[in-house]
Specification:
Elements lengths: L3 E6 L5 H10 L4 E5 L10 E6 L25 E4 L1 H9 L3 E17 L14 E13 L4 E6 L7 E4 L4 E4 L11 H12 L7 H16 L3 E6 L3 H14 L3 E7 L7 H8 L7 E5 L1 H8 L5 H23 L2 E5 L4 H7 L23 E3 L7 H10 L4 H4 L19 H20 L8 E15 L2 E14 L7 E2 L4 H14 L3 E6 L13
Parallel strand pairs: 1-2, 1-3, 3-4, 4-9, 10-11, 10-13, 11-12, 13-14, 16-18
Antiparallel strand pairs: 5-6, 5-7, 7-8, 8-9, 15-16, 16-17
Helix pairs in contact: 4-5, 4-10, 5-10, 7-8, 12-13
């Protein structure tokens, strides 16, 4: 186990960014719902209250009891978190004449305060709130101000509690990392959350958890399942059997290519061709959630059959990572989209889940993969969803649509590598739309399919910006796809960022 900082999530879009910034400081942290503080966890060394889309004055705002936190741990409230601290103690939080959003100039009022240690005398911070603290409670003391926000930062005399009405986690706050690093120091954290320490701790935990039991693991060819396999292999060796299922929705030639890539890891891999089963179950289905569930259920069925052949398998390994968990269930209970590897197992399946990466972000998974000595080709692969091309074909999935998309995707990915763009983007995908349009090829009129090209830049998949690929590259990719993929006569490029759009279309 590691010392940790707990982030109480009040629903802010930047909650995950707070966690990312702490992890960049080699500090372990966990995000939990605002009302689920892990009382009794001896590893907790500090607490952060996130921002929120609510006002503290809203009737339905999140207002937990903080008696288990206040005065017991170093505490930092950010934006809503700071306002809630003031509100709880009888201060006034009121709506301003205008929403304060964007850059502001921060001026420390107390340069000796531990949170502000080594901060510039004047720096830019990022504001994003409609309310402001207009009156601080007794015992609260201002330590920094902006022109429009007198109580931009405060501390509480006699207890290790601070509040800031700006966002230190956002890039535009110049001393943001410094403020977070100062809070880490206040918490007494050692900053020892490194890939090497994670591998050592994970392997030790897996050995204790699994004992002499057998494990099967779903391999997808992606970095998450590959790193999971390498960790499990270190822990249980030959008692791990990896199953790579060809559900017919993989990229072109991926089944053979991935099996070859795994040879250097010394894994026991069983390849299962099951495309006919999946195509049969997906016939006539267009709803994206239903497709995900059908594919997820199909995986479970295949694993169950393979487990029966192996006998006495007690554990199913999965490459679940932190963004999967966060996106699958928000603190309000609203699902953004179901992930095939989140949510447990059917009761009839007599196995337990083991998910050694469930608290890692994607870039941390890659760092762990490098620590484990995995080849760059595996570690640097773009994320590829478990449901595969099934959620990149909008509408019903058929073998012919898969053939079209595989061919288009193969050209796109190959060209990204040839033009030296593959490693510069986080994820690239081709999507087949249920849309046909008129075209002219030669002297003939065509009425064929539309393919969308998607490429994004990101660090952890929680947020992403569309990649600004050069026009000449896009022109060549479009030409290649239209000329060489039978059934496509139009190619478009997706320029949507996340949020509001997700990276995958379904």
């Amino acid at each position: 186990m590691h010392d940790k900082i707990i982030i109480l999530d009040f629903g802010s879009q930047t909650t995950q960014l707070i966690a990312r910034r702490l992890r960049e400081l080699n500090v372990y942290c966990e995000i939990v719902p605002y009302n689920k503080f892990p009382t009794g966890d001896a590893w907790v060394k500090g607490v952060i209250l996130s921002g929120s889309p609510f006002s503290v004055n809203d009737a339905d705002a999140f207002k937990p009891d903080l008696s288990a936190v206040r005065g017991r741990f170093p505490l930092l409230g950010i934006c809503y978190g700071a306002q809630y601290l003031a509100y709880l103690s009888g201060g006034k939080v009121e709506k301003g004449d205008s929403r304060e959003y964007g850059r502001a100039v921060l001026q420390p009022a107390d340069t000796t305060d531990r949170l502000l240690k080594n901060a510039k005398t004047v720096s830019h911070v990022w504001m994003s709130h409609g309310d402001s603290i207009t009156e601080l409670p007794a015992g609260f003391r201002i330590i920094a101000s902006t022109e429009d926000v007198p109580a931009a930062a405060f501390t509480i005399d006699g207890e290790p509690t601070w509040g800031v009405q700006f966002h230190p986690e956002v890039f535009h706050t110049e001393d943001g990392m410094l403020f977070l690093e100062n809070f880490v120091a206040i918490c007494g954290m050692k900053k020892d959350w490194t890939p090497a320490s994670f591998v050592e701790a994970a392997v030790h935990t897996l050995k204790e958890q699994l004992g002499n039991d057998k494990v099967i693991l779903a391999l997808s060819g992606g970095v998450d399942s590959s790193v999971t396999a390498a960790l499990l292999n270190r822990a249980v060796g030959s008692r791990l059997t990896c199953i790579f299922v060809d559900h017919g929705l993989l990229r072109k030639n991926e089944f053979e290519n991935v099996l070859r890539d795994y040879e250097h890891l010394g894994l026991n891999v069983v390849g299962v061709k099951a495309s006919e089963r999946f195509f049969r179950q997906l016939a006539g289905v267009s709803d994206p959630e239903q497709k995900r569930k059908i594919i997820g259920k199909g995986f479970i069925e295949v694993f169950e059959e393979e487990a029966r052949r192996l006998k006495d398998v007690r554990w199913l390994g999965q490459g679940t990572i932190y963004p999967d968990i966060i996106e699958s269930l928000s603190i309000t209970g609203a699902t953004i989209k179901s992930h095939h590897n989140v949510g447990g197992l059917p009761d009839k399946m007599k196995m337990q889940l083991v998910e050694p990466l469930r608290l890692l972000f994607k870039d941390e998974v890659r760092r762990v993969g490098r620590e484990l000595g995995m080849t760059p080709q595996l570690v640097n692969r773009h994320p590829f969803p478990g449901p595969g091309l099934g959620i990149r074909i909008l509408g019903e999935v058929t073998p012919e649509k898969v053939r079209i998309l595989q061919d288009a995707d193969d050209i796109y990915i190959r060209m990204l590598k040839e033009w030296d763009h593959y490693d510069k983007v986080w994820q690239a995908a081709a999507i087949l739309l249920p849309v046909r349009s008129v075209g002219v090829m030669g002297d003939e009129r065509t009425y064929e399919n539309t393919v969308v090209l998607r490429a994004v830049t990101s660090t952890d998949a929680m947020t992403a910006d569309w990649a600004h690929l050069p026009y000449d590259f896009l022109a060549r990719a479009s030409n290649e796809i239209i000329n060489k993929v039978k059934g496509v006569n139009r190619v478009v490029y997706d320029i949507s960022s996340k949020p509001p759009a997700t990276i995958e279309w379904e």
